[in-house]
């Protein structure tokens, strides 16, 4: 397996910039704000021909723990789990701030882990490396490495030292494992992180009874019944008028990027709060991007029958454009109904990626036209001749004919519903593209024969009378 390198340290010492440097495909959310990272964030990296997994963690306050369910204690718990599964630990300290009591307490806890530990003195740009590292010799964790995560100084020598102490990855682990990418989206505090944990069967992401706990999108590889997935936990999306914090604005951007990267989107609604306008906006974003969709109504347990019926009515009334998506009523906290979501995800994914032969598409198109002909436009009936598939995720069906620009929206919905029913495309939006063939006689003047000219003159004389 690939070696795991975990980054730990106090808040705002530069763990996320170093994570971004070591895992360039997907940058972590970075800002000059302590405590921005709260969950474990994993990424695949490669140094030369040596692949590895790097883990970003939340900032530790120094005591390494915390009483009760305070969010700092939960962050520390996530960091401890990351350290336990690591093959090597990179302990970041602040070269500008100097050695602190918190650094010493973290170092004492790291010694008990029994793992290779490398001290990285960050923010050391413009300073002699020996001078920057001298103060941190007192930690007793070996020779410190002076680096600048933001500028990349010293990172190469740090990774050379780290990987020299670790075993090489097996041949089958060199290439990153891919799977069905599933993004879980919704408004803040609807239970996205709780659902991710129930699907994984462990407390993988931080759950706290406060909106906005998740700020960055978290990509989690997972395997179930021999099938690979990448679950993506995203930040809650509020109405634009309520988004004032700059960090939250970037979190929304990360969520939209996660939707674009996903094959299937699980959109969560809160049964106790009903369908909000923001739910409609978020659903429209998912459909606009053409992602396969599964609707999950959370917090279904304990609701009275009248309220359950009202929620179903609101969904039918306010989300009619999501009639292609399966709806599941679950309790993420207790796990009720969560096990059925993987089958729904696989069904939606299969529909989104389905390949359909051109003869089959043309046959169903002709049958649909015979059963319900297109309307007349400009005195002539619209003719739809044949169809072929132009892409997948979402399925794109290209239809050729005459006057296709005049096909009304109602008839397009009829065709989409026909294709969806016949080819079992439930769970994914279906897009149509119409193309009109060029008129071969366009620009060519018809030359009349002598007989046709004589007939025209006779008609003209008759009309004058």
Briefly, what is this?
By secondary structure, the protein is of the alpha/beta class. It is built from 13 helices and 17 strands. Mean pLDDT is 81; it is low at 27-38, 64-69, 170-176, 206-215 and 240-249.
Task: Please describe what this structure looks like.
The protein has 465 residues and is α/β, with parallel strands linked by helices. The chain has 13 helices and 17 strands. It has a 6-stranded mixed beta sheet with strand order 2-3-1-4-5-6, with helices on both faces. Strands 8-9-7-10-11-12 form a 6-stranded mixed beta sheet, sandwiched between helices. Strands 15-16-17 form a 3-stranded mixed beta sheet. Helix 8 links the parallel strand 10 (264-270) and strand 11 (292-298). Helix 11 crosses helix 12 (409-423). The longest helix is centred in the middle third of the chain and has 16 residues, at 246-261. The protein is elongated. Mean pLDDT is 81; it is low at 27-38, 64-69, 170-176, 206-215 and 240-249.
Number of helices: 13
Largest sheet: 6 strands, mixed
What distance lies between the first and last C-alpha atoms, to the nearest angstrom? 98 Å
Mean pLDDT: 81
What sort of overall outline do the alpha carbons produce when their principal axes are compared? elongated
Strand order of the largest sheet: 2-3-1-4-5-6
Low-confidence stretches: 27-38, 64-69, 170-176, 206-215, 240-249
- Strand/helix succession: EHEEHEHEHEHEHEEHEHEHEHHEEEEHEH
As a whole number of angstroms, the C-alpha radius of gyration is 30 Å
Strand content: 15-25%
What structural class do you assign from the helix and strand content?
A: alpha/beta
Number of strands: 17
Helix content: 25-40%
